[in-house]
Amino acid sequence: MYLTLKETAEYLSMPENYIESLITQRKVKAFHDGEQYLINKDQFNQHLEQLEKLKQQLEEWKKEPLPEDPDIKDED
């Protein structure tokens, strides 16, 4: 199913200019029919799923404790 830029923005509750920037950065494929961009809904959802996975990986990484540094010496 294809959505216009405005419909995609409403569907995802995001600003139109953010979605348009993703299109110009070629992170999301879209077709321009001469008047407007047409975006494949499934493809956009795929991009958001990848972002969510990266966010989860970052959160897991942040939760990992720092290992003790063997080079630290108490020099008092």
From TrEMBL:
MF (Gene Ontology): DNA binding
Signal peptide: none
Keywords carried by this UniProt record: DNA-binding
InterPro entries linked to this entry: HTH_17, SinI_DNA-bd
Transmembrane region(s): none
Record has DNA-binding as a keyword: yes
Superkingdom in the source lineage: Bacteria
Helix-turn-helix domain location: 2-50
Protein name according to UniProt: Excisionase family DNA-binding protein
Species in which this protein is naturally found: Bacillus seohaeanensis
